[in-house]
Every structure is written in C-alpha cells, then in structure tokens.
Design a protein that fits this description.
Blueprint (H helix, E strand, L loop, with lengths): L1 E5 L4 H12 L3 E6 L14 E4 L5 H10 L4 E4 L6 H6 L1 H20 L5 E7 L22 H19 L3 E7 L1 E3 L17 H9 L5 E5 L11 E2 L1 E3 H16 L5 E5 L5 E2 H12 L4 E5 L8 E2 L4 H7 L8 H21 L1
Parallel strand pairs: 1-2, 1-4, 2-3, 4-5, 5-6, 6-11, 7-10, 8-13, 9-14
Antiparallel strand pairs: 9-12
Bound molecules: nicotinamide-adenine-dinucleotide.
C-alpha cells in the first residue's frame, strides 16, 4: 500500500508511519511542523513540509503519488487552548480539513481514515460511551472535530469517498522500541506532565479540580497505549483498501483512571515522589470519559496488546529518559 499521513511528524502520526513501514508499505508524510518535529519522522518515509490547507501543494502531492488511502492526523489538539482561542481550532481543524477534503475530491484517492476524538461526545457521568451515544461536545476542540466528521460523512453521501472515523480516548505511552514518543515539550498530557516531574523538568503537577462527581473528585479518563491505537488504524486502513464500507469506531480500553490515580501510579512505576498542586477546574474538561470499544474488537478483530497502565507509563518514562538524555548531551 501507499499511504499519505497528514500530521505524520506528530506524536500519533509518527507511530502510524513506523507501523506502516514495518509492514513494508510506502509512506508519504505531509506536516507543517507546528507541533511536530522532523526528529520523529521515520527515516524511510518521504517527508514533505507543508500545510494541509495549501491547495496547490496538496493537489500536487495527491497527483504525484498513487495513494491507496489517506490517514488524516494533522490538527490542533489542546482542549483548554480551544476554549481560549476557538478560531484557531475552527480554522486549523475544520476549515483546513475542508480545504484538504476539497483536494481529495478532485483526486483519485477515495479513502480516508480520520483522527477524531472522544471529545465529540456529550458527557456521560457513569458507564461506557459507545458510538451511538449522543454527540454534543463541551468545548470548541470537540466541536471543530465533530464538524469534520459531519463534513466527511456528507461528502461520502454525495461522492464515492469512503471513510473510517476513529474516536480516540486519551492516547499515551511510546513505541516499545523507543523509535518515537511524545516530543512536544508543550504537551499537557497528564502522564507526560507527571514524567516531566519525575525527571525534574517540571516542579509540580497541577490538578485541575477535585470537586467533580467522581469517586475521588478528580477527572476520569480512559488511557490507551499509542501502539494499540495504531493497530486499530492498520485494521481501518486495510478494511477501506479491501473495499470495505465507511464506519465510525471508538478506540479506548473501557477502563477509567482518575487524575489522582495516575499521579500515584507514575510515582510507583518511576519510584520517584514529586509535588502536586490542586488548582481550579479547567474550562472545557468533562468529568469522566471512558470508551466502549466493543465494536472495533468484535467487528474488526481489534486485539489491544498493551492494555496495562503501568506499561503505558513505563514506555512513556523510558522514551522521555532517552529523549532527555539526548537533549542533555547535545
Ligand atoms: N493525543 C491524543 O490523546 C488525542 C486524542 C484524541 C484525538 N487526537 C487526534 O489525533 C491527531 C494527532 O494528535 P497528536 O497527539 O499526534 O498531536 P500532535 O500535535 O503531536 O500532531 C499533530 C501534527 O499535525 C501537524 N499539523 C497541525 N496542523 C497542521 C496543518 N495545518 N498542516 C500540516 N500539518 C499540521 C503538527 O505539526 C503535528 O505534527 C489530532 O488530529 C488529534 O485531534 C489525539
């Protein structure tokens, strides 16, 4: 297969590149390097620096290569930032995806795997969220992504575009071979921030509220290892390439961990104690988001292999140590 990965210099897209290359596929990466880095672009991938909204560039890339499928990861991903600066999210996630889709409709590529998010769902205070649950995002990030989902689905009805929308829960961990991981030092993912404290890059972890309606009062999230997330993408890609129908699936483990539980687990796995500070609630945060991913498992035989919070933390810690060492040495 030949696959275009937008956002392939980012955390998740770089893992997708590695997995596709590991299976002997051809990979082209298009990324504007706003949050991504060339350092994690797989060496065997063909890298093009550019923006998904650059119509001339995208059209040229699509016509020069004979792609079987496009995997669209490029986007902006911070919930809190989206509350403060919604236009950035409607522009980079929605408008730029629309421009990209316009190029796609004018090309021979008729299959897209789209990175969506659990943030499209309405908050559910108990139980698991499956794909039929109400979509009603609580922040501009979720809305910007839901708009993309709607545009893709409408386009699929009016053209022969087939899509596979994957709604991710909280992605964490690093490639077990440590070829890639979270490189964005501004990333505010909880496990990354805890590990930054372990490595004394940050002084404390801020806890955004302990007054939620959860067992210990802190927010609850479903953490999925990035490699399991990617194995779901490989199934989605193969399904579309084989001529399968469009679909939407969740990718999570169905088990929630609270912020306080994660803080303790990182201390235990790393054997390092660090400081925490309870600060106020953050705008846009839902109290609890936990996935029902049965559809992906039963319909597409998705079999997560790293469903263990300590494994997630350990791979992230090992990646960060290696990265820290490299930065320190240079
Ligand atoms: N990380 C998570 O927990 C999570 C959860 C749900 C959904 N997602 C989705 O997964 C996708 C990838 O997220 P990530 O964690 O790898 O983030 P990331 O910031 O590491 O990667 C995004 C990549 O897209 C690139 N990019 C952004 N805008 C672009 C544009 N206009 N043109 C070209 N390149 C552009 C960035 O440079 C970066 O390399 C995003 O679409 C995000 O919404 C992530």
């Amino acid at each position: 297969m030949k696959v275009l990965i937008t956002g392939g210099a980012g955390y998740i897209g770089s893992h997708m590149g590695l997995a596709l290359l590991d299976e002997g596929n051809d990979v082209v990466i298009l990324d504007n390097l706003t949050t991504g880095s060339k350092q994690i672009v797989p060496t065997k991938a063909n890298f093009i620096e550019g923006d998904i909204s650059d119509i001339n560039l995208v059209q040229r890339v699509l016509s020069e290569h004979n792609f079987d499928v496009v995997t669209h990861f490029a986007g902006s991903i911070k919930v809190e930032e989206s509350v403060k600066n919604p236009l950035k999210y409607y522009e980079n996630n929605t408008l730029n995806t629309l421009k990209f889709l316009k190029c796609l409709t004018n090309s021979n590529v008729k299959k897209i795997v789209f990175s969506s998010t659990a943030a499209v769902y309405e908050e559910k205070k108990s139980g698991l969220i499956n794909e039929t649950y109400l979509c009603n995002p609580s922040n501009p990030y979720g809305r910007s992504k839901l708009m993309c989902e709607n545009i893709i689905q409408d386009l699929s009805k009016s053209t022969n575009l087939k899509y596979f929308i994957l709604r991710y829960f909280n992605v964490a961990g690093a490639d077990p071979q440590l070829r890639s991981g979270q490189l964005d030092e501004k990333s505010n993912h909880l496990i990354k921030v805890c590990i930054d404290c372990v490595l004394q890059k940050k002084k404390w972890v801020e806890i955004y509220g302990v007054d939620y309606e959860t067992d210990d009062g802190s927010c609850v999230r479903d953490f999925i290892h990035v490699s399991d997330l990617i194995s779901g993408h490989l199934l989605a890609v193969k399904h579309l390439v084989k001529g399968g129908d469009s679909d939407i699936c969740n990718l999570g483990y169905g088990r929630g961990f609270s912020v306080l539980e994660i803080i303790e687990r990182v201390k235990k796995v790393s054997k390092v104690n660090y400081t925490t500070r309870i600060v106020g609630r953050r705008d846009g945060d839902a109290s609890r988001i936990v996935a029902d991913s049965n559809k992906m498992m039963t319909k597409y035989n998705w079999a997560p292999a790293l469903n263990n919070i300590d494994t997630i933390i350990l791979t992230a810690l090992n990646w960060e140590k290696q990265k820290f060492k490299k930065i320190y040495e240079t």
